[in-house]
Design brief:
single chain, globular, 13 helices, 75% helix, 302 residues, mainly alpha
């Protein structure tokens, strides 16, 4: 339906487009836990296939992007942050996928998306990106909402949630790694176009995941049609589309604001796990999800 004629003036097209790209990318990533659960390969191997199936799309994106005028020319100074982004994302993917084997999708996703704390502090200390009061308020609301979602699970007995402490620890490690990835991409975006960053960092991540899978003795080849479809979806939906849109949008938003919107995948993961695996959220988790939505709206206005 078209908007009423009396509607308030809309944000400028580029700003609105970048926000929608950021939110769409985060939504695609929110389904990554579901795809990993359906894959019949090891955690690192799932990360490897995620990168492999995304690489052709990212290569096409880089080729098309290079034809557009006004794109920043890549410099040698961009190589280091791109390499660091690829390695940090590789650690994030392996730890997050491994966490799914020891805890719920909700726990892994929520704890894995607490990276805004580290990103805001890192952006402040390293990049002199002082967050505004609105961003700080949105951060507090997002973290409070995430805690409401996580605490009921953490309070469960060991019998009810087998290996939850270990799984949650892996998810926290993934959050810290993803924070490093966000800051590295933010620095690289000042020196290179988004498509180039996504392609090179994903290739580095693929090598890292393959080495990790071989070192851990994981099953690398999917053994069923479901497994192949799951890893293909990881590559095309969660990475090529999801991570690609996020990398593109980081050129418009600062690291602090962008990282806050990254809590959106946690809500998507909770709802998807409820619908597909019957992981029904508690009332506290529902309120936490609403708090996350409010934080996303605050970031959009700030």
């Amino acid at each position: 339906m078209s908007a009423p004629a009396t509607a308030l003036p809309a944000p400028t097209a580029p700003a609105l487009a970048m926000f929608l790209a950021l939110l769409t990318g985060a939504t695609c990533i929110g389904f990554s836990g579901v795809f990993v659960r359906f894959a019949d390969v090891g955690p690192a191997a799932a990360g490897f296939w995620r990168m492999i199936f995304a690489l052709p799309v990212l290569a096409l994106w880089m080729g098309l992007e290079r034809r557009r005028p006004g794109q920043p020319a890549a410099t040698s100074a961009a190589l280091l942050p791109i390499v660091l982004a690829g390695l940090a994302f590789g650690v994030d993917v392996v730890l997050y996928n491994a966490a799914l084997g020891f805890t719920t999708i909700a726990n892994a996703s929520l704890l894995g998306n607490l990276s805004p704390v580290a990103v805001v502090l890192g952006g402040w200390l390293l990049f002199a990106e002082r967050p505004s009061r609105r961003i700080l308020g949105a951060l507090a609301l997002a973290i409070g909402g995430a805690l409401m979602l996580v605490l009921p699970k953490l309070a469960g007995s060991a019998a009810a949630v087998p290996g939850s402490l270990f799984g949650d620890s892996l998810a926290v490690g993934a959050a810290l790694s993803y924070a490093a990835y966000i800051m590295a991409v933010r620095r690289a975006r000042d020196r290179a176009e988004a498509g180039r960053i996504s392609l090179i960092s994903s290739a580095i991540c693929a090598v890292f995941c393959l080495v990790a899978a071989l070192a851990l003795g994981e099953a690398i080849l999917p053994s069923s049609l479901q497994g192949w479809l799951a890893v293909i979806a990881l590559g095309l939906v969660s990475h090529a589309l999801g991570q690609g849109l996020i990398t593109l949008s980081l050129g418009q938003y600062g690291a602090s604001a962008a990282s806050l919107v990254m809590v959106w995948p946690a809500l998507v993961s909770v709802l998807a796990a409820w619908a597909i695996f019957g992981e029904q959220p508690s009332p506290a988790q529902a309120f936490g999800g609403l708090a996350i939505l409010a934080a996303v709206l605050m970031v959009r206005k700030g």
